Amino acid sequence: MRAREIADDYPVLNLDVDVLDAARLLTQDRLPGIVLTDDAGRPHSVLPDSQVLRLLVPPYVQRDPTLAKVYDEAEADRIAARLSGRTVRQLLPAENTVDLPAVGPSATVMEIAAQMARLRSPLTVVVERERMQGVITTTRLLDHILPPP
Amino acid sequence: MRAREIADDYPVLNLDVDVLDAARLLTQDRLPGIVLTDDAGRPHSVLPDSQVLRLLVPPYVQRDPTLAKVYDEAEADRIAARLSGRTVRQLLPAENTVDLPAVGPSATVMEIAAQMARLRSPLTVVVERERMQGVITTTRLLDHILPPP
Predict the structure, then answer these.
(1) Rounded CA gap, A111 and B78, in Å?
(2) B37 exposed, middle or buried (CB, 10 Å; 0-12, 13-18, 19+)?
(3) Alpha-helical runs (H) found in B7-72
(4) Backbone angles phi, psi at B65, to 5 degrees
(5) Which of A11, A38, A68, A73 is nearest to B115 (CA)?
(6) pLDDT per residue as tens digits for the range A17-36
(7) Which among B134, B141, B138, B104 is positioned nearest to B12, based on CA atoms?
(8) Distance set, CA A14 to CA A43, A77, A91, B137 (Å)
(9) DSSP structure class, residue B148
(10) What does the alpha-carbon distance between residue B132 and residue B136 come to, in Å, rounded to a whole number?
(11) Of A130, B16, B25, B98, which sits with the fewest C-beta atoms within 10 Å of its C-beta?
(12) Which residues of B touch A108 (CB under 8 A)?
């Protein structure tokens, strides 16, 4: 079994998507993460759910999570609302050169699993000549490799 | 809003669960990860999907993913089958002292979000006096903090 046989369709988002719309897509479809593309439509990065959530947390709290305690309950509840109109591109940390989890169409399940495990990524992009051919999530990969009970 | 109001029921697994049963639970219920408990029922660790997948990958391939290429397609497809009867406890890397993502029942959404982001965890356990009160996933937290469109 090869990556091309396992890859599924998956929503992709441009880097200039509104960060709250990106987060809503995750919750509506219970996705494990988002795939971001650049203006040419090439895959740019994958953000697992926890790293989309991270975009909503003020940078100084990301650096020192104990500062989260200075927010009272009402302020903390407004964590997302203050970001209305901001794009994912604006909020991605500049220093953070994110690994793009990607495999070629002929990668085996062992190669795909080893890469997802190493990058701690809930999904990987199948790419051929810079074009995205689909996405493989960890749960879909497990569907394919688990023996019958 | 506090952690105790957001926490949901969530399946927990003993460390001695068969690794393939743990993986099946993920795929059946499309869970973002598993919560492992010790023999006293206390939360021990959280494994995101990618780290459950990691348990299926031979240790020398985890250390050097390029070795995945030495497997031919048929061997790679049997990645999971060879682990039948092995437990999660047996396969957890001994050197890997996993952070347990956990918050107290009065943690605010800002504290929960900052912790999930830092630990790159798709879920956190709500714990009071060593007892698990429930689980909060990233997508459930987002449900609570996203403003209406």
Answers:
(1) 13
(2) middle
(3) 19-29, 49-56, 59-63
(4) -60, -20
(5) A68
(6) 999 999 999 999 899 999 99
(7) B134
(8) 9, 27, 13, 25
(9) P
(10) 11
(11) A130
(12) 68, 71-73, 76-77
Instruction: Please tell me what DSSP assigns to residue B115.
Output: H
Rounded CA gap, A57 and A71, in Å? 12
Alpha-carbon distance of A81 to A59, in angstroms, equals: 16
A69 contacts in B (CB within 8 Å)? 111
The verdict on A96 touching B (C-beta cutoff 8 Å) is: no
Closest partner residue to A113 (CB to CB) among B2, B24, B79 is B79
Place of tokens 């990106």: A22
B118 reaches A (C-beta below 8 A): yes
Residues B34, B122: Cα–Cα separation, whole Å = 10
> Quick one: tokens of A117?
């495990």
The ipTM value here is 0.91
At B51-98, the pLDDT tens digits run 999 999 998 888 888 888 888 888 888 888 889 899 999 998 776 566
Distance CA A40, CA A44 (A): 10
Give the span between the Cα atoms of B23 and B26, in whole angstroms.
5
What is the identity of the amino acid at A42?
R
Give the C-alpha separation, A139 to A144, whole Å: 9
Q: Are B2 and A73 an interchain contact pair (Cβ–Cβ within 8 Å)?
A: yes
Q: Which amino acid is at A76?
A: A
Helices B49-56, B19-29: crossing angle, 10 deg rounding: 140
